[in-house]
Amino acid sequence: MTLFSEIDSQNIPKHVCVIMDGNGRWAKTLGKERSFGHQKGIQSVQNILKASIKLGVKYLTLFAFSKENWDRPKYEVNMIMTLLKKSIQKYKNDLIENGVKLNTIGNLHDLPGNVTKTIEEIKDVTNKNEKITLTIALSYSSRWEIINLIKKMLIEHQKEKFNVKNINEKMVNNYLCTSNLPDPDLLIRTGGEKRISNFLLWQLAYAELYFCNTNWPEFNKEDFYKAVLEYQKRERRFGKIN
Asked: Which of 47, 69, 98, 173 is catalytic?
């Protein structure tokens, strides 16, 4: 019996998020440059995207580059940006053929202009795809998102567009980067660390968290199925009693 066959098709997480950690550490164990780990990590993205489609996951969100990552060595940042651009171009047809809608969260204005242009072009040509939405978090941090949310709400309040008394969760959601996405059901973090690192702090309020020691370049479909099986063993009560 395969892990895939053990999964309950009636209890698939609608929205899965992944903190793809361990690229550099994995490369180091092999005596390679960190760039080697990032390059291998692209294949893991392809594998997990295909596994998500096979399971029927509707939304897959990947934490690719944080606001804090800009403080890494310049050569590594430049390499990641170049790899991002080339990978999106390389897999453009795969996204189209597999019904993948490309989406992003974060501040794309921070990225090099040619990278942003490529991303926007692929987002445009995949905009009507409906099988799965692949969201890439780029130059993203949750605290940055929440600060922006507060600024936007204050500006609109000054314009008398809403009454403070009417502020609720639904209204707040509309000001988030993820306003077009449902809250995550499952967060997976690879690489052995057990923290969420400033990622979707508001949205992850009731998500199931799954941590594994496998570094991202080695994280495969079977590892992904293990995470989904663990998710299915949990009782989601959302603060209530069953």
From this structure: 69
Q: What is the rounded CA–CA span in Å between residue 179 and residue 201? A: 14
What are the residue boundaries of the structural domains of the chain, listed by start?
A: 11-141+183-231
Judge whether 94 counts as a catalytic residue: no
Active site annotation includes 71? no
Tell me the two tokens of residue 33: 């440059």
Task: Look up the pTM and report it.
Answer: 0.96
| pLDDT, the chain, mean | 95
Q: Which residues contact 203 (CB under 8 A, 6 or more apart)?
A: 176, 178, 181, 183, 184
Pick the catalytic residue from 8, 11, 21, 213: 21
Mean pLDDT in residue range 23-31: 94
Question: If one looks up domain 11-141+183-231 in CATH, what number appears?
Answer: 3.40.1180.10
